Amino acid sequence: MANFYCKCCGIKYTSVSSLTSGSCSKNPEGKKHALYEGSEKSKYVCKFCGIKYTSLSSLCSGSCSKNPTTKKHSPAL
Ligand SMILES: [Zn+2]
Ligand SMILES: [Zn+2]
Predict the structure, then answer these.
(1) What confidence category does residue 69 fall into, taking pLDDT thresholds of 50, 70 and 90?
(2) Residue 37 C-alpha to ligand 1 middle, in angstroms?
(3) Is residue 27 part of a domain?
(4) 13 Cα: distance to centroid of ligand 1 (angstroms)
(5) Is the predicted pLDDT of residue 67 greater than 90, yes or no?
(6) Does the pLDDT at position 1 exceed 80?
(7) How many structural domains comprise the chain?
(8) 74 lies in a domain?
(9) Across-strand partners of 45?
(10) Distance CA 48, CA 14 (A)
């Protein structure tokens, strides 16, 4: 079964519809989870600073000095 992740908080869902209907406390642009459109990987890279994490949830929870808007790491696709 495919897994879908929120690019803002890293939470995992098994369907896109349940992901996008769930509320997200970390999405600066809205109140819902936003789909991470990249593929599932063993490592996720922050698109602002290039740091690598092994899970999206730990990437998203770290603060990033190079992200001008949210100050949080944000995954590259
Ligand atoms: Zn989320
Ligand atoms: Zn970063």
Answers:
(1) confident
(2) 13
(3) yes
(4) 10
(5) yes
(6) no
(7) 1
(8) no
(9) 52
(10) 28
In the structure encoding, which two tokens stand for residue 37, read together? 């459109």
Residue span of the structural domain in which 34 resides:
4-61
Q: Output the DSSP codes for 1-43.
A: ---EEBTTT--EESSHHHHHHSB-SS-TT-SB--B--SPP-S-
Convert the pLDDT of each residue in 36-54 to its tens digit.
999 889 999 999 999 999 9
In-domain check, residue 42: yes
The answer to whether position 75 is within a domain reads: no
User: Cα of 49 to ligand 2 centre, how many Å?
Assistant: 4
**CA of residue 60 to ligand 2 center, whole Å:** 9
